[in-house]
Amino acid sequence: MEEIGKQTISQFLEKVYYNEEKTNFWVSQILDTTLKELSKLNKPFKYIATCILMEKNGSPLTTSNVSLWDENSDGLCSVQMGNESLDCILCIYALKI
Predict the structure, then answer these.
(1) Which domains does the chain have, with CATH numbers?
(2) Per-residue pLDDT at 34
(3) For residue 89, what is the enclosing H or E element?
(4) d(Cα 52, Cα 26) in Å, to the nearest integer?
(5) How many beta carbons lie within 10 A of that of residue 64, not counting itself?
(6) What sections of the protein cross the membrane (predicted)?
């Protein structure tokens, strides 16, 4: 999961500079691409993903994830990456069917 998240964000960050008007579209693209790639794994999981895009302007961003589930079968990964103009945090939850 983490590798798919990193690849998706890396490809995205290579070609964009922060633009507030496009952030909703970009978030949708990141989430759609991530979920499509995860579904190609053909694993018995339901996936949930969240994405945060934030302009780099000196303001800190703090986020946290908490879950209560079966630690033997379910999982979570969080990928944080950025470029010179924005930061992206992608969280992926995998819930065994």
Answers:
(1) 2-96 (3.30.1140.40)
(2) 96
(3) strand 86-96
(4) 10
(5) 6
(6) none
Tokens of 50: 């969240």
At 42, give phi and psi (nearest 5°): 55, 45
Tell me the pTM. Answer: 0.89
pLDDT digits (tens, 9 = 90+) for 18-76: 888 999 999 999 999 999 999 999 999 999 999 999 999 988 888 888 888 888 999 99
CA–CA dist 88, 67 (Å, integer): 21
H/E segment holding residue 61: none
- Which residue did the predictor score with more confidence, 10 or 61? 10
CA distances from 49 to 57, 72, 86, 95 (A): 25, 20, 19, 11
Residue type, 55: E
Q: What six digits make up the tokens of 22? A: 């496009």
